[in-house]
Amino acid sequence: MAEPLFALRRFFDAGGPILGVIFLVAVVLWMLIIERYWYHWRLFPRELAALHGRWRLAPCPDRRLAEKMRFKDLSVLRQRLTASLPLIRTLIAVCPLLGLLGTVTGMIHVFETMGFSGTGNPRAMAAGVSMATIPTMSGLVVALSGFLFSIRLQRGCESRAALAADTLTREVCMGCALDGAAALETAGNKETHNALPTPSA
Question: Which residues form the MotA/TolQ/ExbB proton channel domain (predicted)?
């Protein structure tokens, strides 16, 4: 157990302080990605089912008002589906820039070593080269993996939003159809009642 921890510590020491910043950004990024997947798989189906049940139990008789309510409910669902996605994209874009910053700081360390001891100390120069290359590699790995999952999240948002729109549109049409059938039945009863002969005194 101590050997992997020692290797991990040596890796972070070779990468310099920028590698620690990239690690913190990666932790925040993956926490947000896992939270989004948790919402898509566990919470969103419950919210959609609750919304579907509410529309089925209390349909809106007015078609224009029903469309406005449907648009409002869909807007709320889309906002919840796409929450944290802009922040995820921002963190993905920041990771390569942090890696580039690590490259610059590592090269500065190499030049300082060369200016102090010349080219006769390859061990000191290797430390600067490691500080320049490891953060770049780490930033690119975090950015590429996060970019892949962000694309899948975006597609999941679009498909779930389309599913919610189809469900609510179907409920609006069913509610208006039921209301129209009830109105026709009421009108037919009135006509039948008016057609009946009035009893004579």
Answer: 63-159
